[in-house]
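JOB MANIFEST
job_type = single_chain_structure
chain_count = 1
residues = 70
[input]
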Amino acid sequence: MKIWIESDLLGNRIVMLQPPIMGASAIKHCTFHYHSMTDNATTLAAAEDAARRLGAKGDIENINIGLQDI
């Protein structure tokens, strides 16, 4: 299973999963929202921790997305 993080322009981090089943759509597993009580490093660390708990190994790909992709 492929696991990666998508980061939007508002600072939110979305942990994504791609099931190994041919033709399956990617799944948004969880989102860490940026707000006045957080910072970019904290949301990224939380998303990376969630990705590792799901089985991601090594460097986790972080893709920057636009608001239209949310």
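[summary]
Residues 2-69 form one domain.
The mean pLDDT is 93.
exit_status = 0
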